[in-house]
Design a protein that fits this description.
The protein has five domains: about 70 residues, GIY-YIG endonuclease (3-Layer(aba) Sandwich), CATH 3.40.1440.60; about 60 residues, Arc Repressor Mutant, subunit A (Orthogonal Bundle); about 180 residues, 3-Layer(aba) Sandwich (Rossmann fold); about 180 residues, Rossmann fold (3-Layer(aba) Sandwich), CATH 3.40.50.300; about 90 residues, 2-Layer Sandwich (Alpha-Beta Plaits). Helices cover about 30% and strands about 20% of the residues. It is built from 19 helices and 29 strands. The strands form eight sheets. Strands 8-9-7-10-13-6-14 form a seven-stranded parallel beta sheet, with helices on both faces. α1 runs antiparallel to α10, α4 packs across α5 and α16 runs antiparallel to α17. It is globular, with a radius of gyration of 28 Å. The chain starts with about 25 loop residues before the first strand and ends in a 6-residue tail after the last strand. Bound molecules: adenosine-5'-diphosphate (ADP) and zinc ion.
C-alpha cells in the first residue's frame, strides 16, 4: 500500500535474500520515482511475476501492526476515502523511517564580537536575539523562527558568532506510574477504580466520564494512564488542538515526573521525526495530541482518552474527512482496549449511546473541594439595553464595576475575532465582501486590515467607498473582541485589560504567557474568544460576561443549540473555580430560548432531553444518519450541471431522502463554487454502499471535485 490517493495496494516482487513480513515499511519504485510503502499482504497476482518490479529495500523500523493496518482500512471504508490516502496520515513523517543522523545546530558563541566591517542587519540581530536564551537550533529552525533565509544563519556562523554543536535526537522522558497521585475523594476513587479495572481487563469498552467542570476528571483519567503504564502498554490522550496547553503538559509532568510526548501542528520537523520513530520503537509510553495522534504507530496501546469529547475540533474537514472521536472508538474496538470519552457537556451522540448502555457511564457530580458552580443570569438585551454603538448592558457594566472594586478578575467572552464583522458604506449601503468567498470582510483595527476569515485574504481598509466613491463613509457594524476592548478602556480607563484571541496571541507559548499573567493577577479584565474558554483555571476570576450568547444559534445548523450550550457552559465554568463563588451573565435577545433557560437553571439534562426529542422527531443524528456530497469547481455552470446530475441519480426510497442540490451557505469558497446534497437515512442504514453506487451512476468531469462527508458537522 502506497501513501497516495490510490484505492488498491500494488504488487511488487521480493528480491532474493530479502525477508518481508506484513506491515514492513519498504521503498519501492513507482514510475520514475521511488516511494515508501507498507507491505499489506501477499500480492493479488494479476501481473505475472516476471513483470513485477522488485522492492528496493526494507526500512529498519518495527512493522506497522496488524491493528494499525486494519484501522487504516476501517477509516478508509467508513469515510469513503482511498486507503492510501488514509495511510498517508499514518506515515506522515517519511524521514522517521531512516535512522537519525546527528544534526548540526548552533548556539551563540559567548564573548564573540563581529569582525570589522560585518554589518549587523535586522535579520542577523533577530537570530542572535533568538539564541540569547533557549536551546541550540538547526539553521532551518532558526531561519524559520526569525523569518529569514538560512544564508543569514550561515553568514553569522562564518563570522564566528555562532558555536556549532551536534544535536542528538530529542530525548523523550519516561513518565513513572509508580508516583502517587493526590488522594482522591470517594466519587473520584470509584471512578478511577472502574477505569483501572477496564485497563487491566485488556478488552474493548467505551465509557463516558461525565463530570462537571472542576470535578477532577483529569485526575481520574490519569489513573487509567497509570494503569496502562503499569501493564507496559501505551496511553493516548486526545485533546482538541486548542486545549493542548503548556498548563496541561506541566500538570501531567508534575503527576508523572516527566512530560508526555506531544503531537500537534506546532511541532518542528525534527520533533515530529523523533517522536514518530520513538513511538514506533515502543519508547514512548504516553502521547498527548490532537486528532492526528490517532494515526501514530503504537505497538501496544493500552487505553485511549478523548478529553472534551464533544468538541467539534475533532472533526477534520479537509483531506480525509473524519471525526477523531468516532475513529478513536473504532481504534479501541479493533485493538481490544478501553476508551474513555471525557466531558462536562457530552455530545448528544455520546449521551444517547450511554443512555442506551452501548457505552458505560461514570459520573462525577460535584466540584472538587466543595467549590460551587457559578450562578448564571440572563441579561435581556431588549430591556437592559447598551448605549448606541456600545455592547455591554448597564447590568453587566455594574457587575464589572463591583468585581473590580473588590479586586477580583472578570472575563468578557465574544467568539469573534477582530474589530467588526461587517464594514458598510453609510452613503450607498455597499458591504465589504470577500471576492473569493460568500463572506463579509472582518475589520482588524489593530492590524489596520480587512480580513476574510475563510480564505485569509487581507486588504487595507478603504478610505473611500469602492462602490460610490464617497469619502469617510465606511462604518464598522457589530462588535468583535477588539471593539469590546475599546469599550472596556472607555468604561474602566484604569483597569488592566487584554485581548485573548488566536490572532493576537501567536502559538501555545504566547497563550501560556497570557494565562500565567492572568494567574498572577496582572490583568483585571480579559476579553477573549474561545481560545480562552478551555481548561484554564483562574482562582481570582469571578465574573464571566458573555457579550453575545445568541451568536452560535444563528445559521440553522443541526447542532447549533447543542454547540452553543456546550460552549457557553464551558465558558461559564471558568468563573468561581477557586474559593470565591463565580457569577456568569449572558447577554441575549432570546432569554426564553431553551438553551438560555437551561443555562440559567443549570438544567443540563433537561436541555439534552428536549434536544434529543427534537432530533428524534426529525430523524436527525444521532437517531438518523446524514452524509453530505459537496460538489465544487471553478466553473459555476459545470458545478451546477454535475450537481443536478447527481440529484437526478440519487438513491431514493421510503426511508432514504435526498435534500438538494442547493447552493452551500458558503456558495463561493476560496474561489470555488459549491453545491451541496444531503442524504438522510435511518440509523440502521449503511450509507457507504448507497453513496458508492450513486457516484458510479454519474460521470464526474476532472474539473469538478465531489467531497464525501459522512456524518457531517459543518453545513457550510
Ligand atoms: P476537570 O478535569 O473535571 O475539570 P480537574 O481534574 O482539572 O477537573 O480538577 C479541578 C481542580 O481540582 C484541579 O486543580 C485539580 O488539581 C484539583 N483536584 C481535583 N481532584 C483533586 C484531588 N483529589 N486532590 C487534590 N486536588 C484535586
Ligand atoms: Zn475569502
Amino acid at each position: 500500500m502506497l501513501p497516495l490517493p490510490l484505492r488498491e495496494a500494488y504488487d511488487y516482487r521480493v528480491p532474493d535474500g530479502m525477508e518481508l513480513v506484513p506491515g514492513d515499511f519498504v521503498e519501492v519504485p513507482l514510475g520514475p520515482r521511488r516511494v515508501i510503502g507498507v507491505v499489506w499482504g501477499p500480492g493479488a497476482g494479476t501481473l505475472e511475476s516476471g513483470r513485477l518490479k522488485p522492492v528496493v529495500r526494507r526500512f529498519d523500523v518495527p512493522p506497522m501492526t496488524e491493528v494499525g493496518r486494519r484501522f487504516v482500512e476501517w477509516v478508509a471504508a467508513y469515510t469513503m476515502t482511498p486507503p492510501g490516502f488514509v495511510l498517508r496520515m499514518a506515515v506522515s513523517v517519511p524521514s522517521a523511517l531512516e535512522p537519525p543522523k546527528p544534526m548540526l545546530a548552533y548556539l551563540r558563541k559567548q564573548g564573540a564580537e563581529p569582525p570589522p566591517g560585518f554589518k549587523m542587519t535586522d535579520p542577523r540581530k533577530r537570530i542572535l536575539a533568538l539564541l540569547q536564551d533557549g536551546p541550540p537550533r538547526t539553521p532551518a529552525e532558526l531561519a524559520d523562527e526569525a523569518g529569514c533565509g538560512v544564508t543569514v544563519v550561515r553568514g553569522l556562523a562564518e563570522a564566528g558568532l555562532l558555536e556549532p554543536v551536534m544535536l542528538q535526537p530529542t530525548r523523550l522522558g519516561r513518565p513513572d506510574w509508580r508516583r502517587p497521585g493526590p488522594s482522591l475523594s470517594a466519587d473520584q476513587r470509584a471512578a478511577a477504580d472502574d477505569l483501572r479495572a477496564r485497563v487491566a481487563s485488556g478488552s474493548y469498552s467505551t465509557v463516558l466520564l461525565d463530570g462537571v467542570t472542576g470535578s477532577g476528571k483529569t485526575e481520574v483519567y490519569y489513573e487509567a494512564i497509570s494503569a496502562a503504564l503499569e501493564q507496559g502498554k501505551q496511553a493516548l490522550v486526545l485533546l482538541p488542538e486548542i486545549a493542548l496547553s503548556a498548563q496541561w503538559l506541566d500538570r501531567f509532568a508534575r503527576r508523572f515526573g516527566a512530560p508526555p510526548a506531544e503531537w500537534h501542528s506546532e511541532l518542528t520537523g525534527a520533533q515530529r521525526r523523533d517522536t514518530w520513530r520513538a513511538v514506533a520503537k515502543g519508547e514512548v509510553p504516553v502521547v498527548v495530541g490532537a486528532r492526528s495522534a490517532l494515526f501514530l504507530p503504537y505497538p501496544d496501546l493500552g487505553v485511549i482518552i478523548v478529553d472534551e469529547e464533544h468538541d467539534s475540533a475533532y472533526k477534520q474537514e479537509e483531506g480525509a474527512i473524519y471525526h477523531a472521536r468516532d475513529m478513536a472508538v473504532a481504534r479501541a474496538h479493533l485493538g481490544g482496549l478501553p476508551i474513555a470519552l471525557v466531558s462536562a457537556t457530552p455530545s448528544l451522540e455520546t449521551k444517547v449511546n450511554a443512555d442506551s448502555h452501548r457505552y458505560a457511564r461514570i459520573e462525577l457530580p460535584a466540584r472538587h473541594g466543595g467549590a460551587v458552580l457559578p450562578d448564571v443570569e440572563l441579561i435581556d438585551l431588549r430591556r437592559d439595553r447598551p448605549p448606541a454603538r456600545h455592547w455591554l448592558a448597564p447590568s453587566l457594566r455594574k457587575a464589572l464595576t463591583d468585581t473590580l472594586a473588590v479586586g477580583e478578575q472578570a472575563m468578557l467572552f465574544l467568539n469573534r475575532r477582530g474589530y467588526a464583522p461587517l464594514t458598510l458604506c453609510r452613503a450607498c449601503g455597499h458591504r465589504m465582501q470577500c471576492p473569493n468567498c460568500t463572506a463579509w470582510l472582518v475589520e482588524h483595527r489593530l492590524a489596520r486590515k480587512l480580513q476574510c476569515h475563510h480564505c485569509g485574504l487581507q486588504q487595507p481598509l478603504p478610505h473611500a467607498c469602492p462602490e460610490c466613491g464617497e469619502e469617510g463613509t465606511m462604518a464598522a457594524c457589530g462588535p468583535g473582541v477588539e471593539r469590546i476592548a475599546e469599550e472596556v478602556a472607555e468604561l474602566f480607563p484604569d483597569a488592566r485589560a487584554a485581548i485573548m484571541a488566536s490572532d493576537t496571541l501567536h502559538g501555545p507559548r504566547a497563550i501560556q504567557e497570557m494565562v500565567e499573567s492572568i494567574g498572577r493577577h496582572e490583568l483585571d479584565i480579559i476579553i477573549g474568544t474561545q481560545v480562552m474558554a478551555k481548561g484554564h483555571h483562574f482562582p481570582m476570576l469571578t465574573l464571566v460576561g458573555v457579550v453575545d450568547a445568541d451568536l452560535g444559534l444563528n445559521g440553522g445548523d443541526l447542532r447549533a443549540a447543542e454547540r452553543t450550550y456546550q460552549l457557553l457552559h464551558q465558558v461559564a465554568g471558568r468563573a468561581g473555580r477557586g474559593e470565591r463563588p463565580g457569577r456568569v451573565m449572558l447577554q441575549t435577545f432570546m432569554p426564553e430560548h431553551p438553551v438560555m433557560q437551561a443555562l440559567a437553571a443549570g438544567d443540563r439534562d433537561g436541555f439534552y432531553q428536549l434536544e434529543a426529542e427534537m432530533r428524534l422527531e426529525a430523524g436527525m443524528p444521532p437517531f438518523g444518519r446524514l452524509a453530505a456530497l459537496i460538489v465544487s469547481g471553478e466553473d459555476p455552470t459545470l458545478v451546477e450541471r454535475v450537481a443536478m446530475a447527481l440529484g437526478r441519480a440519487a438513491p431514493r426510497s421510503d426511508s432514504v431522502h435526498i435534500l438538494g442540490p442547493a447552493p452551500a451557505p458558503l456558495a463561493l469558497l476560496r474561489g470555488r463554487h459549491r453545491r451541496r446534497l444531503l442524504l438522510k437515512a435511518p440509523r440502521s442504514t449503511q450509507v457507504q454502499p448507497l453513496i458508492a453506487e450513486w457516484l458510479d451512476r454519474v460521470e464526474i468531469p476532472p474539473a469538478i471535485r465531489v467531497q464525501i462527508d459522512v456524518d457531517p458537522y459543518s453545513f457550510l
